[in-house]
Fold this sequence. Notes:
61% of the residues lie in helices and 0% in strands. It has five helices and no strands. The longest helix has 11 residues, at 41-51. It is globular, with a radius of gyration of 12 Å.
Amino acid sequence: MIGLKNIRIQKKLSQQKVAMELNISREALSxxxxxRREPSLxxxxxxxDYFNVSIDYLIRGEEFKKHSD
Length: 69
């Protein structure tokens, strides 16, 4: 979840603030950011909506790029 931590820091938000807004524990958010736990699809959607970025960005740290054949 490379992009999750990046976007949170870029927006100058604490883990506690984001966790409270998403209704999860700060520890859970930390686990997502550090790859110790994977969020559910519904949580990915909530985080994507919250930060206004794609799920692909949250996971990979970059927007989806279509590869040409």
